[in-house]
Write a structure and sequence with these properties.
two-stranded antiparallel ribbon, 7 helices
C-alpha cells in the first residue's frame, strides 16, 4: 500500500472564524510551545555544561565531536512563527477571518509544517523522561 498524502488535499474548504477565537487558540498553542521549549532548553543546557566540563581542551587537536553533537541537538524555538501570525491577526480590521483547510490545521490544530522536525529533536521527544529523572 503506497503513500496517499493527505485525504483533504483535493478539497478546497474554507471557513470563517471569529478573530478573537482564533487569537485565543493561537496564544494557547504558543504558550504550550513556549513551555515545551523552556523545558527542552533547560535539559539541553544541563547536558551542555556537563559536556563542556568533561572536555580536556589541552588534549584536543581538533574540534571535539562531543560539542558538535550538543550543537546538533540544540532545541529550536518557533515562537517567532506564532508571534508573526498573532501579530498579523491582531492588526486585521476584520472581525472574522477566512481560513483554508491548511491554515485551519496550522492555526487551530497546531499542525505546522515545522512541527515534526522541531519536535523530532531528542530533547523534545524525551521531555517526560527527562522531567521524571530530574525529579528523582
Amino acid at each position: 500500500m503506497g503513500f496517499r498524502g493527505n485525504r483533504y488535499d483535493d478539497i478546497n474548504l474554507e471557513i470563517s472564524v471569529k478573530k478573537e477565537d482564533l487569537l485565543t487558540i493561537l496564544k494557547k498553542n504558543r504558550e504550550t510551545h513556549k513551555a515545551d521549549f523552556e523545558k527542552a532548553i533547560y535539559f539541553w543546557r544541563k547536558d551542555f555544561k556537563i559536556t563542556l566540563s568533561e572536555i580536556q581542551v589541552e588534549n584536543c587537536d581538533e574540534f571535539p565531536n562531543e560539542l558538535e553533537n550538543v550543537r546538533k541537538n540544540c532545541p529550536e524555538s518557533c515562537l517567532k512563527e506564532y508571534d508573526d501570525v498573532i501579530d498579523m491577526f491582531e492588526m486585521s480590521i476584520n472581525e472574522n477571518i477566512i481560513l483554508t483547510m491548511d491554515a485551519y490545521r496550522k492555526f487551530c490544530k497546531d499542525e505546522w509544517s515545522w512541527k515534526s522536525d522541531t519536535y523530532g529533536n531528542w530533547y523534545y521527544k524525551n521531555l517526560k523522561k527527562l522531567e521524571e529523572k530530574d525529579k528523582s
